[in-house]
Design goal:
six-stranded parallel sheet; alpha/beta; 17 helices; 12% strand; four-stranded antiparallel sheet
Length: 415
């Protein structure tokens, strides 16, 4: 971090796109993987940006940071995406100051998720911030903000039913299959991808679908084997991908690959198949849906499902927002006081100097000796505490209080 880093909340911006205005194909163009994130942060230094992070999930790509102008963040983000700067600006939302802070709180609480109350976003947020922190892009401002956001999210999860029940993209996929597929226990299910979403999906299939013919594949065969062993299902080497696609009745894909792993020409059988793409960018070529025997489902389709769990969660929204507002108030009080710290320090130093001058002919030989006197120490701290309260509640410029205190001291602070 540089000494002249921007720290004022007036310069805190968020710019992003999400599921509300863009579909899967568009969001895929602005998704940021780890390598792109690394390069992006390197470029940030050249732009003079010191505090920022990028949150890229299946539902959104957002950049948060301190900057002179939001365009600085937007240009940085789009320099590493396949989507154009022009397209992003046309679709993006830009928020600043308190509105940006509120947005981050709501994202972390699951209020802004495609599936209300989806708590997986918290892990994704932590990972995004951790990566930026390792590259020294999380300073005092963002550190405090993120901690407040995570505390709020945790409190909401513990004290409301906003995240109650089991609802996520992974679970929604299994719920879709249960509702749409007859005799699912007899179907051959292929799961491609053994990452977090893949693992969760496989767990839900095992525990909620009743299916027994489940095969797991992953580009790293060892990961597929470990997952299969832990859930007592089958696994196949990735080299057998084409053969497994032909044999499967249902295929779920979540590999985080930058390009599709299933193409139209991979579908050679004429029997009906259900393909579910849980990834952004697409891991299944959308043109696969042109085939008459294929039903292709993506994350946007899954998010449209409604059930009793979601209805219960919607009833908890007002409670969650009230909790968020309390944490936001605490954060802004901290930020206000932090802005006044230099003023408070300057006033305290001034008081010490004045007290020392007033007692220079007495037994005190230095400012340190003076401060060792309990009466003087208490008097100075009382003035500082009173000033801090006034600054916090009145939001008045400190210079006015310096003048007032100097007049008061001149007339005799300890008289």
């Amino acid at each position: 971090m540089t000494d002249n880093a921007i720290t004022d909340i007036d310069h805190f911006f968020i710019a992003g796109i999400n599921y509300k205005k863009t579909d899967v194909s568009i969001r895929g163009r602005f998704a940021i993987n780890t390598d792109q994130y690394h390069v992006l942060l390197q470029k940030a230094t050249d732009k003079g940006l010191t505090e920022l992070f990028v949150l890229s999930t299946c539902n959104r790509t957002e950049i948060y940071g301190l900057a002179n102008h939001p365009e600085d963040l937007i240009e940085l983000l789009c320099s590493e995406t396949t989507g154009s700067l022009t397209a992003f600006k046309e679709l993006a939302y830009i928020k600043k100051d308190k509105e940006a802070v509120e947005h981050l709180f709501e994202v972390a609480a699951g209020l802004d998720s495609q599936i209300l109350g989806d708590y997986e976003i918290v892990g994704q947020l932590k990972q995004a911030v951790k990566f930026a922190k390792e590259k020294n892009f999380i300073g005092t401002f963002l550190e405090r903000l993120i901690n407040s956001v995570l505390q709020s999210s945790k409190f909401i999860k513990s004290n409301t039913a906003l995240s109650s029940g089991t609802v996520s993209v992974s679970f929604a996929a299994v719920q879709f299959l249960r509702n749409q597929v007859r005799q699912i226990e007899n179907k051959n299910i292929l799961l491609i991808g053994a990452g977090k979403i893949g693992r969760n999906t496989c767990k839900y299939i095992v525990s909620h679908s009743g299916a027994s013919h489940i095969t797991v594949m992953n580009r790293t065969d060892e990961a597929a084997a470990d997952l299969a062993e832990s859930l007592n299902v089958h696994y196949a080497d990735y080299s057998e991908l084409q053969q497994q696609i032909e044999q499967a009745d249902i295929i779920l894909v979540s590999t985080n690959a930058e390009t599709p792993v299933i193409l139209k020409n991979n579908i050679t059988a004429t029997t009906h198949k259900i393909l579910i793409d849980l990834s952004i960018p697409n891991n299944i070529d959308p043109s696969v849906s042109d085939l008459s025997n294929i039903t292709l489902i993506n994350v946007d389709d899954l998010s449209k499902q409604k059930d009793e769990t979601l209805q219960k969660r919607e009833a908890e929204v007002p409670h969650a927002k009230a909790i968020i507002e309390e944490h936001i108030t605490d954060f802004f009080e901290w930020h206000t006081m932090r802005r006044h710290v230099p003023v408070l320090k300057a006033v305290k130093q001034k008081l010490i100097e004045i007290q020392y001058a007033d007692h220079s002919n007495n037994a005190y030989s230095s400012p340190l000796d003076l401060l060792l006197c309990p009466d003087n120490t208490a008097a100075i701290q009382k003035v500082i505490n009173n000033m801090a309260v006034k600054l916090r509640h009145n939001n008045t410029h400190g210079c006015q209080y310096i003048e007032a205190i100097n007049d008061y001291i001149t007339s005799g602070i300890d008289s």
